UniProtKB/TrEMBL annotation:
The chain crosses the membrane at residues 73-95, 186-206. It comes from Cuerna arida. InterPro entries: O2_lipid_transport_reg. Keywords: Membrane, Transmembrane, Transmembrane helix. It comes from the Eukaryota. This is Uncharacterized protein.
Amino acid sequence: VKVTLYPGVTRRDLFHWAVCVPASCSVDDIQHSLSSTLKSVFKRHGLEAAVTVDPQYCHIADNKEIPPTIGYISVRVVILLLLVVSGIATVYDYVMPYYRDQKFESALAEVSEKMLLAFSVRRNIHELTEKGVNPKLDVINGGKVISIAAILFGHRILYSHGLALYNHQFWEERLDSHFVDNALLNATHLVDVFFVCSGTLAYLGVHKALDKR
């Protein structure tokens, strides 16, 4: 098995196993036992094996759960902050018309309000469902949304199928012989549709702005 250190390629020379042993066994006992057993098996096939037991994943029924990592906590904090900001922006969007009749005292206050309202659920839903100025362009916007949704789902499926447990040769043959899988997983035509729609809409917007000058 060829070893690659490129982070974009899933290593297929690693095996993750879970074993159930008595609670009296230490981490060193498990590693020594597995190493002596597996090395002899791999050696018969001309392979070398290195066994590593992570103490973090060794626990018994009475132990607490594995402590969360810094990355896990960071992601949870970011998601929580986004939810809080979104909630504040949505509430502010509802009550703003009733409590503010005067204009802004400074340009900074106006920009700050626009940035806050960008997280408003009410305003975003309204803008997503509102018809455009030119109804003829709605079909292009729809094509852009459908294509980017298919691209995102296809990439998510590709990530799952790239795991070491999947036979990559099987998926390559399936992509070559099944149209539906090719349309969702390969999806080069969907990427082209998305870029064409986005480029067309960007051009029309810039062209309209230049005509007003």
